[in-house]
Amino acid sequence: MKDFFTGAKIRIFLHLLSWFILLGLPLYFIKRWQVGNDFIWIYYINTLVIGIIFYLNYLVLVPMFFFQNRRLKYFLSVVIVLAFFYFVTDKSNELVFNYISTGNNTEFAKLPGVEASTPAIPDKGSSFVRPPYRQMHLFNYGFTSLFLVFFSMGMRVLERHSQTEKLQKELEKEKLNSELAFLKNQISPHFFFNTLNNIYSLISINTEDSQQSVLKLSKLMRYLLYESEHGNTPLSNEIAFMNNYIDLMKLRMSDKINLSVSFPVEYEDINIPPLLFIPFIENAFKHGISYREMSFIDISMLTSKGSISFRSVNSIVKPREDTESEHSGIGLDNVSKRLNLLFPDRHKLTINKSGTSFEVLLNINFM
Predict the structure, then answer these.
(1) What are the structural domains of the chain?
(2) Burial tier of 315 (Cβ tally within 10 Å: 0-12, 13-18, 19+)
(3) How far apart are CA 364 and CA 179, in angstroms?
(4) Higher pLDDT among residues 367 and 237, named by residue
(5) β-sheet bridge partners, residue 358
(6) How far is it, in rounded angstroms, from Cα 334 to Cα 316?
(7) Which candidate, 241, 238, 243, 302, places its Cα nearest to that of 267?
């Protein structure tokens, strides 16, 4: 039903409904109020003419001239069409009246509702004077035809505007998908760059731990290569991914690092874009731990119906001389861009930095 009420189907339905009403009205009038049968002849002739004017302007003149910025030719064409069909209606109405007023059509004259063949003439003492037929016809035709011209042009312009908006939204969607793919490709190499450095440092220290690290990394790679390629992923998979990453990082932590992790145990397993939170966790481990002084990392997540609240707090330690500080903001910049693309006006990202701690607060509303 939703697809029916969009696009060309609803337009065709409305056009058919309008014609059904227009063509059915005179039959109702004749049956309900015993209107003369001459009315139906005049009505259908004029309805046919206004239908031709409407669709000629709607389907031909507006697309051919108005949309092509050939406005002068458009207005000249409209004037010619209206003038031509004025004479058509004038002549056809005259023929109908002559047909009715003659006594030749005796069967038609005997139909219910048909008056005497001669037109009604007002009494000499009456103050009412019937308006001249041609002036009334010109006025009615001019008002109706101009209304149809502007109405059909307005409909066509609105439909074109709607199609343009639809195309624009499709282009924006394609642009969004391209930008998300680009941002994801930036995040993944940056993430593996730091993780491989961690594994490299473990090889010479503890072979068994380095092997476990490789297994953890293989799970992370499997998630990135397969799970995250489907667009969205269940929240449970994302939490498992973050736990694997944290377990991998814990293998090289010292006793001077206080790590606190709190992920929800029971939650609604909603689908979310992958890799939303890992850049914050990666940033906390990269810049928040020290092997020479006390440091801390506090990671937590709360979920409610249709929303997620994520918090990451870490200590700020003095960067080592070999740290590539110019690359430290790649992950955070990318996740901020992704959030703006994915959840415009439906998220709030707050970053608080003091002399001793760095805090990230992210609230996302998925409803």
Answers:
(1) 8-116+129-168 (no CATH), 179-318+329-365 (3.30.565.10)
(2) buried
(3) 20
(4) 237
(5) 314, 353
(6) 21
(7) 302
> Does 187 have pLDDT greater than 80?
no
Q: With CA atoms as reference, report the closest residue to 348 among 336, 332, 330.
A: 336
- For the full predicted model, state whether its pTM sits above 0.70: no
Q: Residue 346's pLDDT is what?
A: 93
Report pLDDT for 27: 67
Strand partners for 196: none
Q: Return all residues near 277 (Cβ < 8 A) that are at least 6 apart.
A: 238, 242, 301, 310, 312, 362
Phi, psi of 273 (to 5 degrees): -65, 140
Nearest 5°: phi and psi at 308? -135, 135
Taking alpha carbons only, the member of 56, 65, 62, 110 closest to residue 85 is 56
On whether the CB atoms of residues 148 and 50 are closer than 8 A, the answer is yes
Q: Which two tokens stand for residue 193?
A: 């760059």
Q: Name the one residue in this structure whose structure tokens are 């059904």.
A: 20
- CA distances 300 to 46, 262, 314, 352, Å, are 74, 5, 12, 16
106: pLDDT strictly greater than 70: no
Say whether pLDDT at 77 is over 60: yes
- Asked if residues 199 and 213 have their Cβ atoms less than 8 Å apart, the reply is yes
Tokens of 111: 């139909």
